[in-house]
Write a sequence for this structure.
């Protein structure tokens, strides 16, 4: 192993501080979620208990966390699926240099940079004026897509910029139809970043507040619910929720890493003598 | 001689916007030959090959295989198969699955697929590594898998775009022998793009030299090397001096130039500008009074018996009969 | 079918979604921005009144200025931190596996609800929060620091916390594509560590920096909730102005503010895009 | 269609959109009530712009003033409301007792009735058609931390006392906040208002100017917008004096932190909420909604709300659902004879303690103004934005 | 002969974990020589070069330049300069700024910088393209810029890692002549890594052949090619047959093998397995009765006068004196 330079240690320290900063609130939430039954949202701790985790699964005074969670989860899955499919399709499309691709691309960029409350407002207005029912699965769904799709698209650009076109040509040469090429060659090769897009799409949707605010209709998604909860006596239940969310994220990422690792394992299977001559 | 099974390019042209990559070329490839397509970078070799394979649309002209124009067919329907530079093996499939890919696309059942793939892997001596992933193979092994994958479609014509360029010279020489052997065994026409003239000479039954989007000369290696039609071919194929002789551009083989020792009659006098050792021979470069560079290939024993240093003046001689007239 | 037609076919879902949920709504906002509102209802009409008020009101200028201030400060800090972290990951972590693992480590907090994270700053930064208590018990200060919470400091801190990831990701992405031989070449040419950083790495990371800046600046410019939470409602940015208007059902005025904000943001991004070809640099 | 298959959707803030109510409805009436809690801005928007997204809107009277003219709510037939006659006078003719004066601002009676089913104009008198059925209301004042202040507070003017520099707070909801400001300015003797509930531009300017100056001088620690924020500000000691809601004070106290809902000599700023029916409600759903409203006024909910420190619109019926100790403490302002618990079982007051502000009549009788929407509302909002941005 | 200005590797070793990339090598490079470091892929050439340049730490041993151990100095303080494979030109700087980069780092003022850069660009005949960006240059032009950039630091030793591998063969031959010329003009020691033996022979004053992390043989091209020490060197340098002769492994030059026509006495009989045309010569490969492959290089005229086909049996002859004994 090469010896490490001094700057390496400085940077490691900086990185550690940064991670500490990132996790500061997460850790605070983690600690406070174990408040005693009489504890509040702030320090000091008044005893230590898992009371609030139990409370999380019981009925709340206000609102319906689990209903909201179910909606957010379903919505997240919907957004995830559509984001993956549409952005992969669009990624494929943009390699074809079709007329107007520039306009569409800049539209996607615009979609990314437009402040989210405007989208919320606009979608709300359109549905109102058009007499369409505002519902989390229609208007909120659409509003969230304006945020996750450009993201997915950018990732797809990054993926296809690095994708060797010869794989496709080889597939076509081997008699694969356009669909077979996508199904048997392109998708398997780009699978890891696509899984990344899926994860990202899900979590962006799951945590989206502003775009859902004016578009969710009768029922709240989780972020709105949490915000709604703050209009009454809030208690460490929301910290318990935060802690569980974090653990949930850890689990998802672990699964993701597991899948990627398993894919890699399959590719490595059978040992290797790559690099050695014939 | 025309046979029904040959491949013919008819007025084949490819334009990218205003640049013409392939300019109205006509050529007939005889069946069961090993053809090398040779030329400097950017001359249109890859484009020609890719048009034949169907990975590039034809701007004008046609490609006739076995009597039918295949130039509008999809790649897999043409009876050609392509082997790509750096092989383009599917990284997510095992060696066997790579080879049986086209059968899977056709819907052939698993057992038949595996059997046929193993037969081809046997042919290229890779059956023992059928379960490996491409990343676990060396360059030479990857090449063989790519070959097997191309051959499983039972093509009439196999197209190879610089298949050896990623290998080190040692390996390259071994692999080209394998290619040649395989071509002979299968009887398929191989069209092999390269820009190494030694490779082309060693491998080909027919050498096609391209330059500036057109075919400059085609023929057996001996024809092309021995009787270059133009100055470009003479220079590009190597081993020749191009000099002006009696107001004419001529090619003169480097090994036909003698250094006139002592009192021997010299055709020209020249001053030595460079000495390049080549192992069993030494290339002596000198500049004639006309300012033309002439290389003489001298056997090493002869050279070291009477070493020459840059800056010296010497006489060069050659037999009139060895001078080869070039077209303007 | 021609390539272009195939392209459109594949891109049509994207085009449809963007058309329906972006172009139409923004168009609507644009139209509504010329309408009139009474206390109770929106009335289709054509009037410059909303804009006239907006552009002549000192509040507008102040609020836009505050918005730029937050955007700028956040941009500076996220850039410094994001660049350093990306640099560390790309050039000091050797195996790709550790790079990915550390990078994912940075993304996890991002997956916890923003609102919850924001609420949790209060026990941390408050007058009796962890930070103050720690500082007091360390003897660094003897009076709690008031400016830790409900201040511009708190706002920028929260912005930096939320948005740094958007800076790290693209910069990291470009940096991993820098050929390590360039660094060696620079060292060979006698460049010191700083010189390598400044003359080679920074210029070559520019596309990533630009893309990250676009993310951060637009996210901050459009935010309305962080500023409210972290400043204790004591400061306003454009997003809050809009959300206040929306809360008071002043849709036309909210729309007019939105249009101005949108134009500002698009202009800024337009300028950035002149210097970087996002499509190529990803 | 059976009644048990009916599902009514109610939106409102977390203040009154309590799940226990929904549960009890299911028990008592057999149909379902889905509660969605939002922050107050979002409730207003829903009510005003998305009438199809709810069946019942739980909103405040001043919000009603803005929402009603959109035509998204339908008026309710008084004759179908059983306990109409028992509703506190405030919500009918505006008078708590026959001789009380109507306070300034958007008093509930001024926006409580319309001429007819389709009318968008409020009626000055009681009519057959009600806009909202009153459910919950209270008189707000300043909350203080007696332990950190250590002296008696008796005037709204104390909010701007430099003694509390950096430790004061008010609401960041313009319609409510402006009223608090007016109470303060008036108490300080700086401004004499014609009608605090309907200020002139000059009055608005003056009021905002005074507060802007204070803000610049660092008087305020923060402004709050949600219930929760006010609790946290107070509980964590960030703020020692602020305008506050009664249950928020209770919430602070329940954490063992001393906090007083301080009655002040100038009186209270009051607010009231009620249920409105979406215009799209009809048929069996509409019947169910009336049933729900009648149930609402029949006492159980009133008692439930009163135990949290709010008041019931029909105290008489609620009395039946409370024991004497509770009724005495919460309504009559008597000392508790035993521990007082909130509906969730948490002890709010020990035996012997008195409710801040005394009895119902003492509190509601000292309302100085109501949360309001003024004629110059738009102007006021702009000035408010200026204040926030200052 | 030791001079103060030479570069010496002393017990130089490099380990990556458990793999030894360079194993205890010792060598003295004479000043002002053109050295080619040659060997198969993975033998440790790049690692050696990078240790000299300072881009890789030394596991053991030292590197002595001009009497001092430079193995712990930073790259720029060593008196070496490196030219990278595919050149590593800074893509965001113009040609001129690339060349003057090191001066800028030293804080030299702008005018001086520009002047000096232009002088070096003149040297490599690139002054007219000083304002271009690297992406706008061809491979050969990029190489010259990289050379100018390396030379501006006035190194004592220039290290080149496969500088020609990205070029097509035509260009490669031209560029190697330029390299050689430049080395002669500047008098700097060039250490050039390659795996092309023809390149090494043509360019080098000294050839260093590496294999399996050690130096297998070093010497002038003529020494190494003409008297390979081991079987590996003989095979790797090309042009030799390695056969067993009198129980000993010997090297036999391919051009020393004659085909015994008619009644001439033959040393061995063999059956022809391959014919490879090389232009002015033809390589005839045949298998002896001992199963060893022997290649005979026959002048083309002689070959085509009496063509031989694979499968034929023929007699091979050579002079005893041309046999070269190899070490075990
Ligand atoms: N997709 C394309 N668009 C525009 N021009 C192209 C494209 N592909 C090739 N060309 C141009 O066509 C000409 C021929 O290219 P081609 O790839 O056939 O050359 P080549 O002989 O294979 O060269 P090389 O030896 O470098 O591979 C070149 O001038 C090239 O720049
Ligand atoms: N960073 C590294 N970590 C581990 N092993 C390495 C590293 N770099 C090189 N090696 C190993 O050291 C040995 C020598 O590598 P080196 O790059 O010097 O070979 P080379 O002679 O330059 O080969 P090539 O001709 O392919 O460039 C190889 O076995 C290689 O796998
Ligand atoms: Mg090519
Ligand atoms: Mg190497």
């Amino acid at each position: 192993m090469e010896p490490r330079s001094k700057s390496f240690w400085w940077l490691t320290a900086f990185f550690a501080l940064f991670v500490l900063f990132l996790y500061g609130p997460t850790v605070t939430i983690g600690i406070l979620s174990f408040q005693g039954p009489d504890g509040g949202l702030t320090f000091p701790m008044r005893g230590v208990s898992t009371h609030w985790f139990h409370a999380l699964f019981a009925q709340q005074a206000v609102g319906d966390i689990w209903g909201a969670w179910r909606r957010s989860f379903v919505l997240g899955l919907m957004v995830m699926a559509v984001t993956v499919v549409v952005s992969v399709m669009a990624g494929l499309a943009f390699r074809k240099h079709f007329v107007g691709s520039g306009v569409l691309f800049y539209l996607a960029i615009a979609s990314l940079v437009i402040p989210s409350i405007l989208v919320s407002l606009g979608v709300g207005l359109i549905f109102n004026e058009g007499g369409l029912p505002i519902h989390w699965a229609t208007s909120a769904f659409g509003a969230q897509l304006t945020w996750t799709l450009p993201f997915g698209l950018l990732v797809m650009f990054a993926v296809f910029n690095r994708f060797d076109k010869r794989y496709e040509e080889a597939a076509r040469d081997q008699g694969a139809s356009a669909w077979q090429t996508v199904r048997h060659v392109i998708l398997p090769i780009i699978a890891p970043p696509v899984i990344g897009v899926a994860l990202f799409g899900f979590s962006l949707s799951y945590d989206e507040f502003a775009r859902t605010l004016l578009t969710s209709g009768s029922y709240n998604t989780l972020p709105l619910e949490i915000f709604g909860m703050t209009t009454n006596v809030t208690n460490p239940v929301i910290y318990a929720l935060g802690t569980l969310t974090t653990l949930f994220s850890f689990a998802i990422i672990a699964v993701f890493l597991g899948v990627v690792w398993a894919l890699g394992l399959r590719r490595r299977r059978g040992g290797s003598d790559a690099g050695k001559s014939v | 001689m025309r046979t029904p099974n040959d491949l013919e390019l008819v007025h084949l042209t490819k334009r990218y916007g205003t640049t013409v990559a392939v300019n109205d070329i006509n050529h007939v490839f005889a069946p069961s030959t090993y053809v090398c397509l040779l030329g400097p970078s950017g001359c249109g070799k890859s484009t020609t090959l890719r048009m034949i394979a169907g990975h590039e649309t034809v701007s004008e002209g046609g490609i006739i295989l076995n009597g039918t124009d295949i130039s509008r067919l999809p790649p897999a329907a043409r009876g050609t198969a392509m082997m790509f530079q750096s092989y383009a093996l599917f990284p997510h499939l095992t060696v066997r699955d790579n080879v049986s890919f086209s059968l899977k696309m056709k819907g052939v059942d698993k057992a038949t697929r595996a059997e046929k793939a193993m037969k081809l892997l046997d042919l290229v001596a890779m059956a023992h590594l059928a379960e490996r992933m491409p990343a676990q193979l060396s360059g030479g092994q990857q090449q063989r898998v790519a070959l097997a994958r191309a051959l499983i479609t039972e093509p009439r014509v196999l197209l190879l775009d610089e298949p050896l360029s990623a290998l080190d010279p040692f390996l390259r020489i071994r692999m080209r022998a394998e290619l040649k052997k395989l071509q002979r065994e299968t009887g398929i026409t191989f069209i092999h793009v390269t820009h190494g003239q030694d490779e082309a000479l060693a491998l080909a039954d027919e050498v096609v030299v391209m330059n500036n989007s057109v075919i400059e000369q085609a023929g057996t290696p001996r024809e092309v090397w021995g009787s270059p039609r133009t100055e470009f071919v003479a220079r590009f194929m190597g081993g020749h001096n191009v000099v002006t002789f009696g107001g004419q551009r001529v090619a003169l083989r480097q090994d036909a130039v003698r250094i006139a020792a002592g009192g021997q009659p010299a055709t020209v006098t020249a001053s030595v500008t460079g000495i390049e050792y080549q192992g069993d021979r030494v290339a002596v470069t000198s500049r004639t009074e006309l300012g033309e560079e002439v290389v003489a290939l001298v056997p090493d024993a002869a050279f070291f018996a009477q070493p020459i240093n840059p800056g010296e003046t010497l006489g060069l001689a050659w037999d009139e009969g060895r001078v080869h007239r070039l077209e303007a | 079918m021609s390539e272009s037609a195939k392209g459109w076919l594949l891109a049509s879902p994207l085009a449809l979604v963007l058309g329906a949920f972006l172009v139409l709504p923004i168009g609507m906002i644009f139209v509504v921005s010329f309408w009139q509102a009474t206390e109770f209802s929106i009335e289709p009409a054509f009037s410059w009144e909303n804009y006239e008020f907006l552009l002549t009101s000192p509040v507008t200028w102040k609020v836009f200025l505050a918005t730029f201030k937050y955007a700028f400060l956040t941009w500076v800090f996220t850039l410094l931190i994001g660049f350093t972290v990306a640099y560390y990951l790309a050039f000091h972590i050797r195996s790709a596996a550790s790079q990915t693992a550390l990078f994912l480590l940075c993304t996890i907090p991002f997956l916890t609800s923003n609102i919850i994270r924001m609420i949790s700053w209060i026990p941390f930064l408050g007058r009796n929060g962890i930070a103050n208590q720690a500082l007091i018990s360390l003897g660094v200060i003897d009076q709690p620091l008031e400016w830790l919470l409900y201040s511009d400091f708190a706002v920028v801190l929260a912005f930096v916390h939320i948005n740094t990831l958007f800076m790290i990701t693209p910069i990291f992405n470009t940096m991993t594509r820098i050929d390590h031989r360039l660094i060696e070449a620079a060292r060979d040419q006698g460049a010191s560590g700083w010189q390598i950083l400044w003359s080679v790495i920074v210029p070559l990371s520019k596309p990533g920096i630009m893309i990250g800046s676009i993310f951060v600046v637009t996210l901050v410019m459009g935010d309305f909730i962080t500023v409210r939470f972290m400043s204790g409602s004591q400061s306003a940015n454009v997003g809050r102005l809009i959300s206040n208007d929306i809360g008071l059902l002043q849709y036309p005025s909210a729309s007019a503010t939105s249009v101005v904000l949108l134009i500002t943001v698009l202009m800024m991004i337009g300028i950035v895009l002149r210097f970087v070809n996002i499509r190529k640099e990803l | 269609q059976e009644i048990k298959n009916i599902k009514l959707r109610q939106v409102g803030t977390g203040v009154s959109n309590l799940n226990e109510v929904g549960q009890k409805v299911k028990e008592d009436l057999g149909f379902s009530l889905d509660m969605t809690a939002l922050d107050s801005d979002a409730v207003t928007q829903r009510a005003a712009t998305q009438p199809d997204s709810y069946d019942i809107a739980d909103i405040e009277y001043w919000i009603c003033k803005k929402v009603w003219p959109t035509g998204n709510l339908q008026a309710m037939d008084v004759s179908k409301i059983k306990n109409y006659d028992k509703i506190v006078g405030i919500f009918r003719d505006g008078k708590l007792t026959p001789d009380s004066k109507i306070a300034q601002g958007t008093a509930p009676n001024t926006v409580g009735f319309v001429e007819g089913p389709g009318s968008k104009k409020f009626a000055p008198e009681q009519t057959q058609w009600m806009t909202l059925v009153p459910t919950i209301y209270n008189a707000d004042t300043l909350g203080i931390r007696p332990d950190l202040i250590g002296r008696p507070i008796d005037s709204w003017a104390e909010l701007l006392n430099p003694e509390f520099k950096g430790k004061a707070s008010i609401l960041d909801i313009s319609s409510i906040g402006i009223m608090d400001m007016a109470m303060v300015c008036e108490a300080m003797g700086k401004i004499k208002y014609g009608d605090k509930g309907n200020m002139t531009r000059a009055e608005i300017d003056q009021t905002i100017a005074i507060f802007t100056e204070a803000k610049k001088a660092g008087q305020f620690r923060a402004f709050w917008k949600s219930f929760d924020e006010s609790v946290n500000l107070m509980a964590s000691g960030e703020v020692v004096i602020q305008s506050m809601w009664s249950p928020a004070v209770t919430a602070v106290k329940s954490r063992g932190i001393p906090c007083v809902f301080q009655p002040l000599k100038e009186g209270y700023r009051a607010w009231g909420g009620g249920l409105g029916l979406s215009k799209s409600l009809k048929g069996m759903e509409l019947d169910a909604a009336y049933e729900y409203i009648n149930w609402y006024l029949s006492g159980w909910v009133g008692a439930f709300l009163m135990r949290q420190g709010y008041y019931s619109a029909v105290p008489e019926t609620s009395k039946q659902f409370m024991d004497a100790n509770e009724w005495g403490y919460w309504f009559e302002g008597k000392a508790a004879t035993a521990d007082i618990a909130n509906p969730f079982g948490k002890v709010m007051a020990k035996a012997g303690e008195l409710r801040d502000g005394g009895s119902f009549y003492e509190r509601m009788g000292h309302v100085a103004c109501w949360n309001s929407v003024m004629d110059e509302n738009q102007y006021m909002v702009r000035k408010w934005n200026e204040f926030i941005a200052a």
Remarks:
- Residues 270-278 of chain A have pLDDT under 50 and may be disordered.
- The pocket of magnesium ion (ligand 3) is lined by residues B 45-46 (CB under 6 Å).
- The interface with chain E takes residues 1-3, 275, 277 of chain A (CB under 8 Å).
- The longest helix of chain A spans residues 237-268.
